[in-house]
Write a structure and sequence with these properties.
Layout lengths: L2 E5 L10 H9 L5 H8 L5 H9 L6 H9 L8 H11 L3 E4 L4 H9 L8 E3 L2 E5 L2 E5 L11 H10 L4 E6 L5 H6 L2 E5 L3 H9 L4 E3 L3 H11 L1
Parallel strand pairs: 1-2, 1-6, 2-3, 6-7, 7-8
Antiparallel strand pairs: 4-5
Helix pairs in contact: 2-3
């Protein structure tokens, strides 16, 4: 059975959660209350993001300048992408982050056209950032991340998932192979619930583990 790799972006491929960083700097209002509501199960991930992103009214270039000075890629990312290309393994980024920020950061590595990105579309306005979730997988799952995992598995394909945040929990719970960033909230939640995952600090560990499985 084929294997595809699906990975979160903020805090997983890059060192910080760029959305939280930008919200902390530019949000007009208490954006954290929506995180709390999401974690208590009172609102969906999609609704949480809609409410939070509307609080950001900074122009696009200001947002890009801010993340440029704060963001680095996790060790082993280049090697993992090269490995996937060599082995013919599809690598997909699934993110609740800002699509234009992800594209900008991937452009720094000349990878913006080499990696599939599944994320809501954004529209910047003077009233905040608005999201469009159309075009993302819908399979009755709790959010679009877990929907993507299930849609891939429906093609009789195994999924290896990499994540760090609570929005990744349902996706990683349904994945066939699970990697979580050590020390993350996702790692803690998985330990609490008995979801067996490999805790990693860099993406070289993913390459080594998948290589062993593919032999």
């Amino acid at each position: 059975m084929r294997l595809e790799i699906v990975s979160d972006f903020d805090g997983t491929i890059v060192n910080i959660d760029a959305v939280e960083y930008l919200l902390a700097r530019f949000a007009d209002g208490d954006w954290r209350k929506y995180d709390d509501q999401y974690e208590r199960g009172e609102i969906s991930l999609e609704e949480c993001l809609r409410q939070q992103y509307r609080m950001i009214k900074e122009p696009r270039q200001g947002l890009l300048n801010a993340v440029d000075g704060a963001t680095t890629f996790r060790e082993g990312f280049d090697e993992l992408i090269a490995f996937c290309k060599q082995k013919g393994i599809t690598f997909t980024i699934v993110s609740a982050g800002l699509d234009f920020v992800i594209a900008h950061l991937l452009r720094r590595k000349n990878m913006e056209n080499r990696i599939v990105v599944s994320a809501p579309k954004t529209k910047l306005t003077s009233r905040g950032i608005f999201l469009d979730f159309s075009g993302l997988p819908e399979r009755g799952a709790s959010n679009f991340k877990s929907s993507l995992v299930r849609s891939i598995q429906a093609r009789t394909t195994r999924v290896a998932y990499i994540g760090d945040g609570l929005s990744d929990y349902e996706a990683i719970r349904h994945a066939n192979v699970r990697f979580v960033i050590k020390g993350s909230r996702l790692a803690e939640r998985c330990r609490e619930d008995g979801v067996k995952c490999r805790e990693i600090t860099n993406l070289k560990e993913v390459t080594r583990n998948v290589l062993r499985r593919e032999r």
